[in-house]
Amino acid sequence: MTGKFEALSVETLPKRLGGTAALTERIGKDAGRWKVREVGDGNLNLVFIVEGDQGAAVVKQALPYVRLVGDSWPLPLKRSFFEYHALTRQERRAPGSVPAIYHFDESQALIVMEYLAPPHVILRRALIDGRELPNIAPDIGLFMARTLFRGSDLAMAAKDRKADLALFADNVELCDITENLVFSDPYFDAKMNRHTSPQLDGLVAELRADRDLKVEAQRLKHLFAANAETLLHGDLHSGSIMVTDTETRMIDPEFAFYGPIAFDVGMLLANFWMAFFSQRGHEEKGSRAPMRAYLLGVTAETWATFRAEFSHLWRTERSGMLYQKSLFEDQGDLLGAEQALDHMLHSIWTDLLGFAGIEVHRRILGLAHNADFETIADQDLRARCEAKALRFGRHIAVNRRQIHSIDEVNNLAALIE
Ligand code: ADP
Ligand code: MG
Ligand code: MG
Ligand code: MG
Fold first, then answer.
1. How far apart are CA 364 and CA 201, in angstroms?
2. Can you give the residue range of the structural domain that contains 410?
3. Ligand 1 pocket test: which of 65, 247, 251 has the largest number of ligand atoms within 8 Å of its C-beta?
């Protein structure tokens, strides 16, 4: 399909995509027999599952506006282009970690990809249900280390990275969403904000009057906007991960952008900490104490895996223009390279705590909330969970330079809870 953009519908999809080889080869040629469902539950796009005689595939299509808000908020279709290019890079850098991509149509802003069939579910859903997934920490830790290291000047040829940086620099509107919704809106009376009211009104006023917090949030925003370190996923929360007991796949990188390594890691860990603080609201069928312990374990193991893999890649794949081996290893100075690695891991750690704290705030005070808290029907109970998370977020963002280990953070979370 080429030509003018037109949104697909369940009714028009078979006719419009019936001639697309990438689809017919996989699911069957007789488009008249295709079964189509629209399952998009995200904030922005259409997602169709198409099933034919031979198999199934997913068709994801961008809309020229924000689905959550409607056509009063236009958003460019080219986000689909960035999602496609991010997926192909992630597959190269961390093989097997994203759905297989079959086809991209730029003018129709659509991507045809592997259908992650049941028992795949969205990780956030599984955590709300109290399921302990055994592999998520190592799988996600490896994904982050591999994509973030291999997309940076530590690994890439300078020329290639600069070309890539230029390509993704055009993802302006989605960056703008992050810049405003994550880093600024929670800290003033922005139009699209909402929070559990009146229960949280007092705490919200306190946070908006918190000078240290606001200055820190802006320092982090500056870091996000100005430190083009690596190709980020850009939206790596538990709603962008699909899991089974044994498999983990990252989806939905339309926010991909060159930014600080710590951003993806901090956003992801924040979502585990929010899952932790929300468990109290999901105890109808019994105590979630084991689930809480599991979630803190997941944060620790994810960070440990990230550190170990990042260190491994540092020692074995440091082929970019930064910290060249000619300065260290080639002169027999192994400790010099280790010293530089420690500095880098330390700054990733300090920054990820900041990003994590701010991410917690925006999911409770901003426009896009988390089902972890939203599905707690009892407003008072929900507000108690949210208040703990908000205080936790403030603490780790403001004190991030004085916090030295993930155990320290998890002890703090357990103490507040
Ligand atoms: P959005 O950008 O609108 O958030 P997502 O890419 O997150 O869209 O997809 C929305 C939903 O569609 C996901 O939460 C998931 O339920 C479903 N989905 C997306 N991609 C796939 C896939 N490859 N296989 C199965 N389901 C998918
Ligand atoms: Mg999504
Ligand atoms: Mg998305
Ligand atoms: Mg300390």
1. 12
2. 121-416
3. 251
Asked if residue 148 and residue 206 are part of one domain, the reply reads yes
Q: Does residue 396 share a domain with residue 318?
A: yes
Q: What is the pLDDT of residues 239-277, one digit of tens each?
A: 999 999 999 999 999 999 999 999 999 999 999 999 999
Q: Does residue 8 lie within any of the structural domains?
A: no
Q: Tell me, what CATH number does 228's domain have?
A: 3.90.1200.10
User: Which three-class secondary structure state does DSSP give residue 165?
Assistant: helix
Q: Distance from the CA of 241 to the center of ligand 1, in angstroms?
A: 9
| pLDDT tens for each residue of 133-190 | 999 999 999 999 999 999 999 999 999 999 999 999 999 999 999 999 999 999 999 9
Q: Give me the interface pTM, i.e. the ipTM.
A: 0.97
Check residue 338 and report its DSSP letter: H
Q: Atom 11 of ligand 1 has which residue's CA nearest to it? A: 40
Mean pLDDT per block of 10 residues along the chain (417 residues) reads 88 97 96 96 90 98 91 94 98 98 98 98 98 98 99 98 98 97 98 97 98 98 98 98 97 98 99 99 98 98 99 98 97 98 98 99 97 98 98 98 98 98
- Whether 393 and 271 map to the same domain: the answer is yes
219/340 same-domain check: yes
Rounded CA gap, 401 and 128, in Å? 31
Instruction: Give the whole-angstrom CA distance, residue 340 versus residue 344.
Output: 6
Write down which residue in 71, 88, 114 finishes a domain: 114
Distance 252 CA to ligand 2 centre (A): 5
Asked whether residue 2 is assigned to any structural domain, the reply reads no
Residues with CB under 6 A from ligand 1: 39-45, 47, 58, 60, 99, 113-116, 122, 240, 251-252, 254
Q: What phi-psi label fits residue 200: left (phi over 0), alpha (psi between -120 and 50 degrees) or beta?
A: alpha
Which ligand sits closest to the CA of 40? 1
In angstroms, the CA 40 to CA 44 distance is 9
Q: Are residues 271 and 398 in the same domain?
A: yes
How many domains is the chain partitioned into structurally? 2
